[in-house]
Amino acid sequence: MKVGTWNINSVRQRINLVTRFLRAEQPDVLCLQETKVVDELFPAGPLRRLGYVHQAIRGQKGYHGVAIVSRLPFRSVASGDFCREGHARHLCVVLENGVELNNFYVPAGGDIPDPRVNPKFAHKLAFLSAMARAFRNRPHDRRAPVVLVGDLNVAPLENDVWNHKQLLDVVSHTPIETELLAEVKDAFAWSDIARDEFVPHDRKLYSWWSYRAADWRASDRGRRLDHIWVSPGLKGAATHHAIHKKLRGWKGASDHVPVVAEFALQPAKDCRPPP
DNA sequence: ATGGTAGCACCGCTA
């Protein structure tokens, strides 16, 4: 099973990039964030024609919005109550193969990293706390195959940003955020497959490069904001992981690039007994 | 120290 996650920064503006990516990469499932479109105007057709006929969408006007498009049928679709502002920032599907897939768009948090003066930062911290609480309180079958992906808007490790010291007081890499994200991770014993399974911690790794750089490639001031986590039941199941940096160079690119993982699943474990 | 870009909505907000 191959899963992708991509903050697309308007799915209507970039539908041709999405289809180009799907044609080339052929994931079974793609999770999108920042779709920026109400459900009635979601570009379902071009995705359906590529075989992504199963679509869970949760959009809102102008901002935020998440979607999961899939070649595998869904057993169920739900969205959690993590966002006190009522934004469209989470979707959860259970796939036909029994894998539960959570797609998150964590609030960016504004510019000032102080919850007392910046309500957007306070909201981001509240959202992450709600994630930690939800997964901590969830009864867990440790063998259950659960995946969490999305734009978590936090670059947790030193080499997830271009300059650790310089970014310690920049929203996305402050200690209060990285510690909270670590709590979310501990709450379900998640494995961050990029760092825990594929790429050594001393290597720089980014999934986002600002639009505001004159030359994003030359300055290379990136951050790793987009993540794929797996529950203990899927630890070691990933056979491939990639961050598609090349797509940042496509004409009209999103500021985020897709992150992809491939899993070898044990069919027996994931099969639902016949009704 | 500052300002740089992008999308959507609508003349500012969010990222």
Quick description:
This protein is of the alpha+beta class and 275 residues long. The chain has one domain: Endonuclease/exonuclease/phosphatase (Deoxyribonuclease I, Chain A, 4-Layer Sandwich).
Classified in CATH, the superfamily is Endonuclease/exonuclease/phosphatase
Please outline the major beta sheet: 6 strands, mixed
Strand order of the largest sheet: 3-4-2-1-14-13
Question: What's the number of extended β-strand segments?
Answer: 14
CATH class category name = Alpha Beta
Structural class: alpha+beta
Secondary-structure element series: EHEHEEEEEHEHHEHEHEEEEH
Distance between the first and last residues' Cα: 24 Å
- The fraction of residues assigned to DSSP E strands is 15-25%
- Give the proportion of residues in helices: 10-25%
CATH architecture: 4-Layer Sandwich
Question: How many domain modules?
Answer: 1
Q: Give the rounded overall mean pLDDT.
A: 95
Notes on the structure:
With 275 residues, this protein is an alpha+beta fold. It has one domain: Endonuclease/exonuclease/phosphatase (Deoxyribonuclease I, Chain A). 24% of the residues lie in helices and 24% in strands. It has eight helices and 14 strands. The chain has a six-stranded mixed β-sheet. α3 packs parallel to α5. The radius of gyration is 18 Å and the shape is globular. It starts with a strand and ends in a 5-residue tail after the last helix. The mean pLDDT is 95. It binds one DNA strand of 15 nucleotides through loops.
Provide the descriptors you would attach to this structure in a database record:
alpha+beta, six-stranded mixed β-sheet, 275 residues, Deoxyribonuclease I, Chain A, DNA-binding, 24% helix
